[in-house]
Each structure stands twice: as structure tokens, then as C-alpha cells.
Amino acid sequence: MTTPILEIRNLHARIEEREILKGVNLIIPPGEVHAVMGRNGSGKSTLSYVLAGKEDYEITEGEVLLDGENLLEMDPAERAAAGLFLAFQYPIEIPGVATMTFLKAAINAQRKARGEGELSTPDFMRAVKTAGTELNVDTDMLKRPLNVGFSGGEKKRAEVLQMALLQPKMCILDETDSGLDIDALQVVSKGVNALRAANRSMLVITHYQRLLNHIVPDVVHVFSDGRIVESGDKDLALQLEAKGYADFDGAAA
Amino acid sequence: MRQTMPVRLGPAEDTLIAQLTSVGASAEADRMTVAGLPTRRVESYHYTDLKTLLKTVPPLATPANQASAPALRVAGAYQLMIANGVVQGASTAPAGVIVGKSAGGVLTSRDDVLVHLNGALAREALTLTLESSVDPVIQIDRRCEGDAAHVADAVKIFVADNGSAVILETFSGSDAAHVGNHATYLALGKNAVVTHITVDLSAKASSHFASNEYSLAEGAKLRTVTIHAGAGLSRSQVFARFVGAGAHADFTGLNLVADGQHNDITIDIRHGVAHTTSQEMYKQIARGRSKAVFQGKIVVERDAQKTDAKMMMQGLMLSDEAEILSKPELEIYADDVVCGHGSTCGELDEDSMFYLMSRGIPKAEAETMLVRGFIAEVLDPIEDEALNEALNGIVDGWLLGK
Ligand SMILES: Nc1ncnc2c1ncn2[C@@H]1O[C@H](COP(=O)(O)OP(=O)(O)OP(=O)(O)O)[C@@H](O)[C@H]1O
Ligand SMILES: [Mg+2]
Fold first, then answer.
1. Using only C-alpha atoms, what is the Rg of chain B?
2. Which of A37, A135, A222, B196 lies most in the core, judged by the most C-beta atoms within 10 Å?
3. Residue A84 lies in a domain
4. Contact yes or no for B356 and A94 at CB 8 A
5. At A178, which CATH number?
6. Is residue A1 part of a domain?
7. Within a 10 A sphere around the Cβ of A209, how many other Cβ atoms?
8. Counted domains in chain A
């Protein structure tokens, strides 16, 4: 059997004495796109933060492997260099850091960690321009401080632009569709689909079945109260849309 | 015949009294004998109790003829040097610059111990007259060399009407426990435009004291940048007076305070006539067990109607043991003015750190990026590229704990 890109075994995590993740099990083989749907507050973003290495959480049990490597032992920068990418539900605004400077630093830091040489400035500019054109991101916007003054939709597009530039193995998209207008949703979905590859996997967190018409998942998971309670093919999303979560997690809607 | 109770004098004060006496400054010697070094009870030294902080004072400096490389390399700059208080020979001055020497101190009288000491101990001053717009950056390298020494030096700069210049002063020297007492007097003529940057790069074992006095005539524009990135104990004082309408100044600074250090920037800005404006923007970054002090005083005199002055202090704590202090003071005697002040203090934003790191940027580099962002407001206005890079380099070096 090939090594899964992401393997989560019995993951428990808490924040300030409150257990949020209560035994997550998930295996994503190379090339597959998995969708996660679930109620507000069920722990989806928490899962994405724990995977990306945010400090606030205490992992009390479980194991996570990224392409066979122990993810939980790495700091967030090492995880990124190992190929993990999280498109944030709420991207952070950082005044005083120019977007271009940031993009270049990120690309070169990852290259360095992998023992590759720095990207030359012309090559970098070309890569940004290509990705920007595909995702309809105005390169003028990238002259501004990182995410500062970007509209909600622009922030989401900028996240996918970063993903396209960094070429990760494992992409986690946390509600990348929320805040996008109809056209932007098409553009972003196209950008994400263009990144689908045999050696790249994705975890797409969303509330809307609509996104999954554009980014068609191999597997859909229902997340409830800190764990995955149901998994199925893409039709599971349609059932959820029609019937709500109550049938799956037993709680009243 | 002393009326007041004599204060208990420590070894630093004993040395200072002997030094003042040896140069014939008996009035200053008497003053030191009566009052001693200022303690926290002296309002303007409340956070920088020199009596406690300055334990010893090394012997008065003997002349040094040092011709080492400048403390900070800025491509294309015109170099001048004062070593152990002695003005060194210089290469041919660029167009519009007259370089000279004068005897004695340069500051106007003011009841401040550092000003008194400099006035009594500085033997000669480097004088610069800038007659027009000066192209290259003028760099004055002020050094304390050799064995630990008490060094007093002085610089006097006149910028003619409509003249302009960028002046960089760096303070550095050998690794010994020097005490440097530096004075700069800078007068801006009508419509003169000047950027004056002072950077302390002296050894951690040393104490750095600098008093900069400014006078702004009608329509003059001044930007000051005071950077501390060296001495374990330092205090830079900025005394400015607006004497002509339409003058504007940006007073800015970076107080970079590392473990075991105590660094103080104290400013006293006087708007003396109507229609002048100033903006004060100081950033303090402290790490380890350290103390950063900013005291900002703005005085608006009775006739200084339509003054617009805004002061801001922002602090960034890189450790729990660091202390960042800020004391703003507004004294307003005119009624039609806009004046304000604010101060904030925080740590590096955790969410920002996580975001940067989540893109593969290692922790130290992410910190540097955020700190560079934090100080950008102070360094961005420095347009000369080589100079801007050199100043950013100082901050990067400081962050790496060089
Ligand atoms: N810092 C915190 N302290 C305490 N509780 C927290 C903290 N952060 C998150 N939580 C709680 O953890 C739970 C899971 O939050 P999370 O953001 O993971 O939900 P989600 O499934 O992503 O929801 P949504 O669909 O609304 O984005 C919520 O009940 C939330 O209030
Ligand atoms: Mg969420």
C-alpha cells in the first residue's frame, strides 16, 4: 500500500481544559480530495490549526503522519516545509509586512529547508504573475501590506495564490468558499482544481455543497463534536444539504 | 558655605568632582558636590537614577588618533571623525560644506547634569557650516577609543537658509567601559531641510550620554532619528525649540534595549511661536531583563497659537522580564492648539507569528519580519537607500543579538 499523504490516528486536543477534538481518525491517500462538513463549533478549524501547529492547543492523545513523517514533532515552519499548507478561514492582516516580501520569504525559506537554492527575483516575479493571472488577483494588490485592506473575498483568493506558489503536498482549505462571490467561486475552484495532482492531497472544509460541485471530492466526512461520525462519497454532501446534520450526529438541529 | 544638607557622594561623583576641578570648572565641581548625580527624586531623571546606575567614571580621555573603519558603512557618505574628544583631520569637504573647529562646548545653558558636564569637559567642537544643499550623507563618527575613558565631545552645525542635508552621527569605539558624553547643536536656517540621525553602537560595557539641541527658523523642516543599539546604559536627550513660523519637525527614535541594559530617550520640544507643527514617534523594543525609558515633553508657549503636535510611543516586549516605560507630558500655555499623545505596549502578535510560520518562515525570521514591520514607520522616511539599508541592518543585527 502506498503511504497516505495524511494519516490522523485517534487525535485528541484541548484548549484551556476544554476538549475540542475527541478522537479524529482520517486517512487521505495521495491524489485524493476529502471534504469535511459539520456544524458550527464542531471543531473543524481546530483540527486545521492543530495540523498546522498552532501553539494554543494541547494534544493529549493520538498521532499525525504527513507522508509518513511525524507531524506533531515539528514546529509550524517545519510542517510547511514538509509540505503542509493551511488556507485560513480568517487570514491574518499583518501591517508593516509587504505581501511581496512575505511571499518571497516564504518560498525561499521552504526551498532552503528542502536544500534547494533561492528563487531569482525574475523567476519569482514570473511565478507570482502567472498565479495571479490564473486566480484573478491584481498584482497591484500584492504591493500592499499582507492582507491589509483586502476584502473578504480577496483574502481568500490570496490564500489560494499562496498555495499555488508554495506547491504543497497536503492542502487544507478552511471555508475558502465563504465570502466569495459567484464568479470568484468559479475562479478559485478552477485554481484549486488545477492543483489537483497524483502526489497532492486536499482536505476541504466547507458548509456548502455548492463548492463540491466545482471541487468534486473523492470522500465526504461529517464532523460532529470533535470527531468524524460518517464518511461517504460525494452524494453524502447532497444528503446533508437535504436533511441537515441531525440524522448523522443524533443531536437536534 | 553650604546651606543644603550635603548629599552622600559615591565614587562616580568623587571622580567627576576631581575631573571638573582639574579642568578648572570649579562652579560645576561645586554643583556636583552639593547636588550629586540626579536620583529618582529629580523629575527628569525619575526613571533613570544616575546615582544608582552610574557606579564609576573612568579617567578623562587622552587624545587618540584612530583611523579605523567607520562604525557603520554607508556608501557615498562624507566621513568625519572625533576620537576621544579630538576632531580628526578630514578629506576635502563636498560642495557647500565648511568644516572647522571651535573651542569649548556647544549647548546653550540648561539645568541638566549631562549638559553641565559636557560644557565643562568638552575641549573642542567640530563645526560644520552647510551653505546650500549638500548631496552626500554627512557621517560623523564619534569614538571612545583605548582604555576605559570619560570622553566629552561636541559638534556644532549651522544649516544656512534654504540649505539641506542628511547628517548621520554614529557613536562607537573600543570594548572598554567608557563614559561618553556627547553634545550636538544644530541650527536650521529659514526653509532649511535636515535629517539628523544619531546611532549609538558603542560597547555594552560603556555608558552613552548624548544631548542634541535644535533650533528651527521659519519654514524649516527637521527629521530626527535617535537610535540606541549599543551601550548598556544610555540616555539621549533631544531639546528642540521652534523659533520661526511654518517650521515642522518629526522627532522619531528606536530604543533597542537588550538584556541587562537601561536605555532612555528623553525629549523636550518647545513650540515658541505660532504656526509650527511637530510629530513625535518613538518605538521601544526590549528583551531579556531590561528597561526601556521614553520621556516625552512638549511645551507650547503662550504665543504659540495654532501649534499642532502629536506624540506617540509604541513599545514591543520580547520578554516577560523587560520593562517599557513611557512618560508623556504636555504643557500648554496657548489656547488655540491641537496637541495629543498616546502610547501602546504589547508583545509580538501570536496570530501573526503563526501565520508567517505556517508558510514555512522560521521563527527567528518571522520575528525579524514583524519587528521590521513594527519599526517601518521610523525608518521608511529615510530615503537614501544605502543609509536606509544600513539602519535596517542595525536592527537586524540587534535582533540576532550580535
Ligand atoms: N481559544 C479558545 N478557547 C476556548 N474555546 C475555544 C477556543 N477556540 C475555539 N474554541 C471552541 O472550540 C470549538 C470548536 O471551534 P472551531 O473553530 O474549531 O469550530 P468550527 O467547526 O471551525 O466552526 P465554524 O463552522 O463556525 O467555523 C468552539 O466551540 C469554539 O468556541
Ligand atoms: Mg471554522
1. 21
2. A37
3. yes
4. yes
5. 3.40.50.300
6. no
7. 18
8. 1
